[in-house]
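Give me the fold.
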Amino acid sequence: MINKHINILIKRYKMTKPLLMSFDFDHTVIDKNSDIVIRELLPNEYTETIKKLYKSCDGWTMLMKNIFELLHSNKITKDEINDTINSIPAVQGFEEILKNLNSNNCEVIIISDSNSVFIENWLKYRQLDHTVNKIFTNPAWFDDKNLLNIKPYHEQNWCTLSEKNLCKGYILENYIKERTENGVSFEKIAYAGDGKNDLCPILKLSDKDIAFPRQDYPIIKLLNDPDTKNNVKAQVIPWKTGTDIWNALVNKINL
């Protein structure tokens, strides 16, 4: 009975927002790869060890788990890790676009193969955490010994375009479905990213949506492939700065 009443209320109070904006994090919101930046805290003598780990570890997330253990054994502290992440600059215009989207009744989500500690701390440090509605990434936490732990977001076997620990297209589709069930729909959906694992969510977009691939990054080459091009329904707008994305959105949606 309670669920029935909730469903009636949802149907009665449906809301349409102008935009759902989904961002990757590394090389999209921030101008570096957070995992690489942290890896560089290790002494140079670990270069060969890291190369061996890269070949032996089962996926990138497990590689980072080993990297975090090496950092801990080298007495790299929690504060050093957080300070290093917080010092990574935003891509030009991204602090402004996050604030603009938030103030214009748009929803913003981040879907990233980084981890929750890096993303949440960076956003809080920049006082931008209120601008992001939800973060989908690999869960991470510092334990009582200040060792940074990480585990995969999920384990998937249905998408060959994605890493097994994170299918961004699946996450995007599920979020849209969840919001629809909660009475929230979007006039447009947009996705911005730079890498190969950003192709899957772009392919999930409809012909009324917008794909924002970062200029001069791997995603551009993928989208220029004739076979891929034929499967992309969304309008494709390359970008270099957050300002480029914002200017395109202002011309495309009713803000």
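The two ends are 38 Å apart (CA to CA).
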